[in-house]
Amino acid sequence: MSKKRIGYIVMAILVVGLITGFVVYKKVINPEQRQISKEVTEFTMDAEDLQFHFLNDPEAATFKYIDKVVETYGTVTEVGPNFIVMEGKVQANLLQENKQPVKVGDIVKTKGRCIGFDEFLLLVKIDQVTIIKNNQ
Hints:
It is a single chain. This protein is an alpha/beta fold. It contains three helices and six strands, in the order αβααβββββ. Strand 5 (107-118) and strand 6 (123-135) form a beta hairpin. The relative contact order is 0.16. The mean pLDDT is 87.
């Protein structure tokens, strides 16, 4: 093989390697953050029903709801700096840029990503939450 041909092969391998590295970086190391507020809702239910599913059959509920977009509604029972608790059963961690004034007793509908169930506090945890509707 000539040196010129070997040079082309080495160059092609380098180009493929760079492209592969870029794709791995964009998809695995530094992926775009999901925008839950723009995704299609997969499940809609009140806070009590959502908690019931996790209490009744934790494995099935985990498989069905975790990392899915859910709309949940209920009466606010607790308000924190970055979260609300509905019916004492669902903790919704609010997005910073999408906060609406909420107080205890408001009936709200939220949209977010279900991230798990706290077995100690018996709370379903939802993050990246936006408030869709607030009936004060």
